[in-house]
Amino acid sequence: MGLVVVALALGGWRTATLHSAAPVAANTVVVGDVTFRVTHAEQVKGLSDSDLSGMSHGIQSLVTAERTLVTVSVVVSAGDSPASYDPSQLELVAVGTNTPIEAVGATISGGELDAHASLEGAVSFVVPRDGSRLELRAHGQTRSVPLLQVDVPTPGETDHGHSTASAGPVTVVPLPAQR
């Protein structure tokens, strides 16, 4: 009888601990007490030199044809208590490398979230157009969220998807299904 009581108590404790450690969705990066859930990622083609009427000289932060802008949309959420968040903690990495690509901009800045609060925003990165598969992670972490595969410029292409030949559309790999 005593062993049955001990077994039931251990089983109840194991069930409680399993429920308290909720699994993290495959499309989520956790930074401290905050989660960044990826809702969309895309490679942005941008304007060509001809779209700018040849006036692309001297434009600060101009993304040239061998690079592209990748925008990652996220929902930032706090758990059971207020928490600080900072989108600059996020970085991209090409699969097979460990070299981080830092964000160049975001529609949200760091701040404080109330308990159970969330907000939506986007974080942008400039990456080489080299066919790499990109993943999002937090600084110093190895867990990452698969995003998309960047295209490679086609022969004759002078700007982002604008060419003398016809350039194909950008390929966006869908995110894993939410659990």
Structural write-up:
With 179 residues, the protein is mainly β. The chain has a single domain (24-163), classed as Immunoglobulin-like. The chain has one helix and 13 strands. It has one helix at residues 2-20; strands spanning 28-31, 34-44, 67-78, 83-85, 90-94, 100-102, 105-106, 111-113, 118-128, 133-138, 145-149, 157-159, 162-163. It has a five-stranded antiparallel sheet, with no helix packed on it. A four-stranded antiparallel sheet has the order 6-5-10-11, with no helix packed on it. The longest helix has 19 residues, at 2-20.
Notable characteristics:
179 residues; mainly beta; Immunoglobulin-like; five-stranded antiparallel beta sheet; 1 helix; 11% helix; 39% strand; globular
Task: Supply the number of structural domains.
Answer: 1
Q: What's the total number of strands?
A: 13
Q: What is the top-level CATH class?
A: Mainly Beta
- The residue-averaged pLDDT reads 78
Order of strands side by side in the largest beta sheet?
A: 1-2-3-9-7
What CATH architecture do you see? Sandwich
Estimate the strand proportion.
Answer: 35-45%
Detail the poorly predicted runs: 4-10, 12-21, 162-179
